[in-house]
Amino acid sequence: MKVLGHRGCKYEIENTIRSFEKAFELGADGIELDTQSTLDNTIVVSHDENLKRVFGVDFKIREHTLFELESISKDGEKVPTLESVLEIAKSRSKMVDVELKNPKDLEAVAKIVQSFNYGGFFISSFYHRAMLEGKERFPKIKFAFLYAHVPEDVSLYAKKIDLLKPEIEFVTPEYRNYASITIPWTVNEKEDFEKLYDLNVFAVISDYPDKIIEFLKEKT
C-alpha cells in the first residue's frame, strides 16, 4: 500500500513546498495536490481559488497574475507553481496526484505533467468528462475518476479510466476486484486503514501520512 500526503500534510500550511517536503520527510510515497490558474495562465497549487481560508487574504487567484500572487505569503510560504512541485517530486522519485479543480485547465495541466515524462504523476478530478477527454488526448498520462458516491457499476468506471479515487466512506468490498487501481481518500483513522488494508488497495491519501506508515509497520 502506497501512502500519499493529502495537500502535503496537516503539520504545515496545506499545498505549500514546506508541506510537501514534510510529507516526504515523514516517509510518504507521494503527495496529493490541487491546481488553479492565474490570470496570466500559470498553473499553481491551491485547493481554493480564493486564498482567504489558507493565507488570510481575500485574493482570487484567477483574477491576478503570477507576479501579483507571489506577493502573498504566510510564515514564509507562498503558493507554488505546479511545475516547481513536480520538479521536487520527480527528483525524489515520488508520486503526485494532480487534482484538476477546473476543467478549463485540463490542457495546461496535462501539458505540464506530460513534459516531465515521468510515470509517477497522474491527474484526477470530480469532472469525469474532463478525465475521459484527457485520457483520449494525452494517452501517456494516467487519469483518475474522483468521486464521493457509490457508482451504479464500479466495473464501468474501472473500464473507462486508469485509476479510481473514491471517498473512504463509499468504498465497498466490491473494490477488492479493483484494488490495484483504487486510491481512497481521506484516510486518517485506523479503522479505515484496516478496511482498506484488507481490500489490498494500491494506495491511500492521508492528512497524516506518518500515522498510516506506522499502521503499515504494525502489519509487518
Automatic annotation (TrEMBL):
Coiled coil segments of this chain: none
InterPro entries: GP_PDE_dom (IPR030395), PLC-like_Pdiesterase_TIM-brl (IPR017946)
Pfam families: GDPD
A GO molecular-function annotation: glycerophosphodiester phosphodiesterase activity
Presence of keyword Hydrolase: yes
Domain GP-PDE: 1-216
Enzyme Commission code(s) on record: 3.1.4.46
Top class in the EC scheme: hydrolase
Gene3D superfamilies: Phosphatidylinositol (PI) phosphodiesterase
Keyword Hydrolase: yes
GO terms classed as biological process: lipid metabolic process
Keywords: Hydrolase
Name of this chain's protein: Glycerophosphoryl diester phosphodiesterase
